[in-house]
Amino acid sequence: MLPQELLRAAEDEVDSDDESEDNDEDDDYYEDDDDSVPELDDVPELSPEMLKEEGNAHFKSKNYAGAIDAYGRAIELALSLGLEVPSYYLNRAAAYMNKLM
């Protein structure tokens, strides 16, 4: 879709949401007081170091595919945070080498 078409589709969706707000039957659906869903502050933030540790655990158990995935996610997350950690690349390379053996 072109950007103008996306904008029109979004505006149409907002307009249809405004029309559905008039329906009082749906209001009870959103007033659920269930506390089983954690608040955003209660969820631990994922860090590149946590992903590296996950990769290390996979590596130690010889699950090299899992290690490669975890180290790759650590690299991506670190880069998104403006960090470049060479050991993540080295760990992933070691996992690739062990996988080939």
Keyword list:
mainly alpha, 101 residues
Describe the structure.
It is a single chain. The protein is mostly helical and 101 residues long. It has a domain of 56 residues. Helices cover 62% and strands 0% of the residues. The chain is built from 4 helices and no strands. The radius of gyration is 23 Å and the shape is globular.
Q: What's the quick description here?
A:
With about 100 residues, this protein is an all-alpha fold. About 60% of the residues lie in helices and about 0% in strands.
| Average predicted confidence as pLDDT | 76
Radius of gyration: 23 Å
Output the structural class: mainly alpha
Compressed to H and E, one letter per element, the order equals HHHH
Total helical segments: 4
* Percentage of residues in strands: under 5%
